[in-house]
Amino acid sequence: MKYRVDNDLLSIQEARINIELARDAAKELKSFSQDQLDFVVEKMSEALHPHIEKLAKMAVEETDYGTFHDKVIKNRFVSEYLPQRLKNQRFVGILNENKDQKLLKIGVPVGVIVSMIPATSAVSTTIHNVLIAVKSGNAIVISPHPRAKETVRGVIKLLAKTAEDAGYPPGAISCMQLVSKKGTQELMEHPDVSLLVATGIPKVIDKLKQSAKPYIYGGSGNGPVFIERTCDIPQAVKDIIGSRTFDHGMISAAEQSIVVDQPIDQEIKAEFKRQGAYFMTDAEKQKLLNLLCKKDGSLNPAYVGKSAVYLADQANLIVPSDTKLLIYEQPYVDESNPFAQEFLSPILAYYVENDWQHACERCIELLMETQKSHTLVIHSQDEEVIRMFALKKPVSRMLVNTPSTFGSMGATTNLFPSMTLGSNAFGIMSSSDNISPEHLTTIRNIGYGVREIEECFEKKNQDEAKETIEEVIAQLLKKMME
User: Fold this and answer.
1) pTM of the full predicted structure?
2) pLDDT tens-digit profile of 33-62?
3) Are 116 and 203 contacting, i.e. CB atoms less than 8 angstroms apart?
4) What residue ranges in 118-222 does DSSP mark as E strands?
5) Pick from 107, 417, 104, 131: which is nearest to 253 by CA?
6) Partners of 141 in the β-ladder
7) Residue 132 in 3-state DSSP?
C-alpha cells in the first residue's frame, strides 16, 4: 500500500524545529560581544567572495529572472561594500554613555528573526539580511521563495557553516528545505519568533498583519521620477535608463513613471530615443499589456525580469534591435489602469505637466495610486523646487540627481547599503529607513539617580510660595486703588 507524503505537515514540523534551534541559539547569543559578532561577519564576507559569480549564475538559471552580470554586481555590493560600512559600528552592548548626565544606551538583539526572501533578488537579499542579523546578534530563519529555493539554500549552507566555524551557535542561521504555505504560516505565528522581515512580497502583507507580531516590510516600488526644466537632460535620461534596465528592471526601487516638465518635453523624448528608448503607440501598448497581464489583471511571472527586446518580440512589436526601454505615454493617472501595478521589467509610463507645481501633484497621485511606493526621484538644479518636493511628498525616501535603483540601496548615495527598503506607505510597524542592524535591536535606556526626591518637591514648593506672595501683593494693590 502506498501512502501519500504530506508536505504541509513536514514543512510545519521543519519550521518548528528551525525556530526551536534558533531560540536556543538566541539565548546563547545574548552573551556575545560586538567584537565577537564582527569577527563572524568578517569571516562570512570573506567566504562569499569566491562564490559571487557562481551564486549569480545559479539565481538566473533557477528563477529565469534578470541578468548574470547585474546579479554579480548586487552580490558584490552586499558581500563587500555592506561589511565595509558595518565596520566600527556598534549595535549591541553599550552604545552610548553620557557620564555628565549619567545615562546609558544599550543595544539588545530582538532574538529570533524570520526572513522571507523574494525570487527577484534572492541571493543579495539573503546575504544582506543574514549579515545584518549576525551584526546585531540575532538568530535568523530564512524562508525562500519557491522559485529560488535551491539557490537560497546554497547561500545559507555556505553562510551557516562559515558562521559556526567562526564561533556562532549552531542553529542560529537556517533555511527552510520544504517550502509550503502552511510551513510559512507556522514560521510567522510561532510564539518564539520575535520579528518578521519580508522583502518585496506583497502577497504576504495581510498575513504579516494577522500574525500579531512586529514586522518589517521592505515595500514594493512603483515610484515616479520628476525631470525638472533645470536638470542636466542627458545625465537624467542616462540615470533613468541605467536604473530601470538594471537586472531587467527587477529592483523595486527603480523608476516606474516619468513626470516631465512641459518646456523640456521634446528634448527629453529626443534624448530617450537617442539613448535607446522606444515610445509605443496605443495599439502597441495594448499588445504589451496583453502579454504582461493575465486575464484577471495580475502580473504574468513568465515575463518578469526580461529585456525590452525580448518583451517586444513576444508581444509582436517591431522595435530597433538595440532597444533598452519601452515607454508608453499616459494623459492622466487612472487607478483602474493595469499599468498602475509594479512591472518588474524595463517599462516606463510617461506624463507631461505644465510646471513643477502640477508635476508635484502628479507625483503625489502616482505615489498614492497603489500606496506602495517607497521612493521618489527628482532631477533638478533648482534647490527651491527640490526642497518643496521633499516637504510635500508622501514617500519614505527622496533621491536627487541619481539613479533610483542605485541611490535607494545606498550605492550612489550615502544611505545605508540595503536590499530591504523600509516603507511607511502601509501604515505598519516598518521603518521608512533602509533596513540595517539598528532595526533588528531594541534600545535599553539606563538612568542613574542624580538628585533626591526632596530636591524636586522643594523647588516646587518654593515656586508655589512665591505665587502665593504675589497674589497677596496684587490683592493689596487692588484695595489701595479702590
Assistant:
1) 0.89
2) 999 999 999 999 999 999 999 999 999 999
3) no
4) 139-144, 173-175, 195-199, 215-218
5) 417
6) 114, 174
7) helix
Dist CA 175 CA 11 (whole Å): 12
CA–CA gap between residue 433 and residue 324 (Å, rounded): 31
Length in residues, the chain: 482
Question: Cβ–Cβ contacts within 10 Å for residue 332, how many?
Answer: 8
Three-state SS sequence of 26-79: HHHHCCCCHHHHHHHHHHHHHHHHHHHHHHHHHHHHHHCCCCHHHHHHHHHHHH
All three cell numbers of 310: 525580448
Residue 286 amino acid letter: Q
- pLDDT tens per residue, range 397-411: 899 999 999 999 999
Contact 396, 367 (CB under 8 A): no
As a whole number of angstroms, the distance between CA 381 and CA 400 comes to 9
Which residues have C-beta within 8 Å of that of residue 90, sequence separation ≥ 6?
34, 107
d(CA 330, CA 315): 20
Is 404:246 a contact under the CB 8 Å cutoff?
A: no
Q: 479 or 427, which is more confident?
A: 479
Q: What are phi and psi of 113, to 5 degrees?
A: -110, 135
Strands (E), 211-300: 215-218, 223-227, 255-261, 277-279
Hey, what amino acid is at 452?
Answer: E
Rounded to the nearest 10°, the torsion over CA 271, 274, 275, 281 is 80
Q: Return the exposure string of 207-220: e unless at least 16 CB atoms fall within 10 Å of the residue's CB, then b.
A: bbeebebbbbbbbb
